[in-house]
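Hi there, hope your week has been kind to you so far. For a while now I've been wondering how a particular protein folds. I'm sending you its amino acid sequence along with the backbone structure tokens. Could you read through the record and tell me how the tokens relate to the sequence? Take your time with it, there's no hurry, and the full record follows here.
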Amino acid sequence: MNLKHLKASIFVVVLSWTGVTATAQTQQSDFWNHVRFGGGIGLSFGDGFFSGTLAPSAIYSFNDQFSLGIGLNGSYNSLEDNYNSTIIGVSFLSLYNVIPEIQLSAEFEQLNVTRNYDDRLNLPNETYWYPALFLGAGYSSRNVTFGIRFDVLYDDRRSIYANPWAPFVRVYF
């Protein structure tokens, strides 16, 4: 290989690398333009009861109608002289806007539940995994959706929720 061919080859490699880098940067910035962050915060207390929840999430909007996302969930509950529980989990979310104002959703949630009972109650402490599959519908206005969802896998003995129906508010920025 002579010097002229070597220079031409180096030029082609550098030019190709520059094109690949520019394309990757354009695709990366385009990806983040479709990602929205949100989640939920909950706090409840009174008469010896305390509950706190933090649930951040992110969704990727493929278009104006369809989005997929992932979320984390962390909760702590306690009832004075009775029990305390720690709940950690992950959820996978799909959203479909039939029209801009009406949103249908499906959310699979997998939670690790740890319940510790007061010794005087003579109940065994528990640690277990609990799955939930919520199907929901809501009304959307800009970044906020209000609605109701139903857990099709609801188990009244193991669920952390009082019943299979649950109202929700989603906010994504």
